[in-house]
């Protein structure tokens, strides 16, 4: 576990050799929220009133803190740090909110070891004018402690030496609340070592639960879950470049090679990609991410590359590559089973190919038009026509090819059934003439009725029964009409409605 502490400088220029603090409004006057090394050497501390700080330091550079801007900057910095490992988590308020955790287990060897990894991280942060202290330890708590309080700015602590490393560190290294830390100091417990060999019961009785919890987390006795800045990928591949790339063609070509690398792992595990994330790491530290959702799981490199190309085309007008991209990462954030299947000599193979072609078309449309612009009809367990299906996002499930219904259904169903005046030979007979939207239609032929009863189990009051007719007028226009209410049982004067139109 790696912890890096970095202070985001103010937008206003400051002299780094002079005491500098960020102030936050508080009861009793402004207080120090963050400070640089010269301010620490002058005896200033976080939480001290600004008036006392000015009396101590004399000349003091002060800027108001912008919490929202700092949080956004820390989030962007943490996202950039995913170039080292997919699992990166910014510190919360309880940890100081001025650094991030990186889970480098299984990733350090890619950089030649932990020492070379943190050296590279430190040099890149320095290039961004971000002074940083970095600590590597087996637990997040110990990594946080050594990154803040160890004498060396870059520290790699071997596993199993957590207690030894914490012994001489101040009590604040346990990430305790100011009240708890102050009380412990009054009792003479100024270092973490003063707590290690003491009985736990008195501390549990007098102090909040955070004291023993933080101590156990630092020593690895209990786990400390972290919240990653982005969801950890199922599969991940990252490529560092000797020279930055700028063009879309170069990005697509490299993404294709990354996907070809991942396909071997997908085949081994009998799964396919259902969601992808392409991360583009710019030279200036910004990170551009491209998320792609798929209708069906797939391992088709050509199809996935085409989707990335389409997505980049839509983003090209709004994104600026700056000095280029120095690294690319391709992550499969969602994978689903994709077992091998027969592709020849079976009817099922034809159905499968049809489904895959439809899914590929939906994927392309979603990249061009946006995910929310492509929807599909989803069947609902209801035999009332206007309730039998709803519009759902196309990515909610695979495309469904419904079997031909037993009864005829129109291609266009009106949003609301529209009243019409109908002439029939008998009250329960088919329509012979109907007037709809001011136009009279002579019925040449009529088929029906198809009787649809109310869903009495869903509603307290029963809805009228409907008798649907498929009619064709003298001009060849075909419509779907229904008569509402059974004559003599539910109504004495049935009403007619136009509910749909056929092609």
Based on the model shown, name its key terms:
503 residues, Dna Ligase, domain 1, 29% strand, elongated, alpha+beta, six-stranded antiparallel barrel, Alpha-Beta Plaits
What does this structure look like?
The protein is α+β, with helices and mostly antiparallel strands and 503 residues long. Among the domains are: 2-18 and 59-162, 2-Layer Sandwich (Alpha-Beta Plaits); 235-353, DNA polymerase, Y-family, little finger domain (Dna Ligase, domain 1); 412-501, no CATH class. 29% of the residues lie in helices and 29% in strands. It has 13 helices and 20 strands. The protein has helices spanning 37-41, 50-57, 67-80, 114-127, 140-149, 162-166, 178-186, 193-196, 200-206, 210-219, 248-269, 301-315, 347-369; strands at 2-6, 20-24, 31-35, 61-64, 88-90, 99-102, 132-136, 154-156, 235-245, 271-282, 287-298, 325-337, 375-379, 389-393, 412-424, 431-436, 439-452, 466-473, 478-484, 495-501. A 6-stranded antiparallel barrel has the order 15-16-17-18-19-20. Strands 5-6-1-7-8 form a 5-stranded mixed beta sheet. Strand 2 and strand 3 form a beta hairpin. Helix 11 (248-269) runs antiparallel to helix 12 (301-315). The radius of gyration is 34 Å and the shape is elongated. The model has no long low-confidence stretch (mean pLDDT 86).
């Amino acid at each position: 576990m790696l912890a890096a502490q970095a202070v985001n400088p103010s937008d206003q220029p400051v002299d780094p050799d002079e005491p500098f603090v960020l102030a936050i409004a508080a009861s009793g006057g402004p207080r120090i929220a963050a400070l640089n090394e010269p301010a620490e050497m002058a005896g200033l501390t976080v939480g001290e009133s600004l008036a006392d700080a000015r009396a101590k330091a004399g000349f003091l550079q002060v800027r108001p803190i912008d919490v929202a801007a700092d949080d956004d900057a820390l989030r962007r910095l943490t996202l950039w740090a995913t170039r080292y490992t997919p699992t990166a988590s910014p510190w919360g308020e309880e940890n100081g909110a001025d650094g991030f955790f990186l889970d480098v287990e299984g990733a350090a060897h890619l950089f030649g070891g932990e020492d070379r990894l943190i050296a590279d991280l430190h040099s890149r942060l320095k290039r961004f004018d971000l002074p940083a202290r970095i600590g590597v330890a087996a637990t997040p708590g110990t990594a946080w402690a050594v990154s803040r309080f160890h004498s060396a700015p870059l520290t790699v602590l071997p596993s199993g030496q957590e207690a030894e490393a914490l012994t001489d560190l101040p009590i604040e290294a346990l990430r305790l609340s100011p009240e708890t830390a102050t009380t412990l100091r009054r009792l003479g417990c100024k270092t973490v070592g003063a707590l290690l060999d003491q009985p736990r019961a008195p501390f549990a009785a007098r102090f909040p639960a955070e004291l023993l919890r933080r101590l156990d987390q630092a020593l690895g006795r209990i786990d400390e879950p972290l919240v990653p800045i982005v969801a950890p990928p199922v599969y991940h591949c990252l490529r560092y470049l000797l020279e930055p790339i700028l063009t879309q063609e170069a990005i697509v070509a490299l993404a294709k090679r990354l996907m070809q690398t991942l396909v071997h792992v997908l085949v081994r595990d009998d799964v396919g990609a259902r969601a992808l994330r392409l991360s583009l790491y710019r030279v200036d530290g910004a990170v551009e991410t491209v998320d792609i959702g798929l209708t069906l799981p797939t391992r088709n490199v050509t199809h996935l590359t085409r989707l990335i190309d389409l997505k980049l085309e839509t983003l090209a007008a709004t994104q600026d590559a700056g000095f280029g991209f120095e690294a690319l990462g391709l992550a499969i954030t969602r994978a689903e089973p994709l077992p091998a299947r027969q592709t020849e000599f079976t009817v099922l193979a034809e159905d499968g190919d049809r489904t895959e072609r439809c899914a590929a078309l939906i994927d392309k449309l979603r990249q061009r038009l946006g995910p929310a612009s492509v929807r599909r009809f989803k069947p609902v367990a209801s035999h009332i026509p206007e309730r039998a299906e709803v519009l759902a996002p196309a990515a909610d499930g695979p495309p469904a090819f419904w079997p031909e219904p037993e009864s005829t259904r129109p291609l266009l169903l009106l949003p609301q059934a529209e009243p019409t005046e109908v002439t029939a030979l008998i009250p329960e007979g088919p329509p012979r003439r109907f007037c709809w939207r001011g136009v009279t239609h002579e019925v040449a032929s009529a088929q029906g009725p198809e009787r649809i009863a109310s869903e009495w189990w869903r509603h307290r009051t029963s809805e009228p029964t409907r008798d649907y007719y498929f009619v064709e007028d003298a001009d060849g226009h075909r419509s779907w009409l229904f008569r509402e209410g059974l004559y003599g049982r539910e109504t004495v004067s049935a009403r007619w409605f136009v509910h749909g139109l056929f092609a």
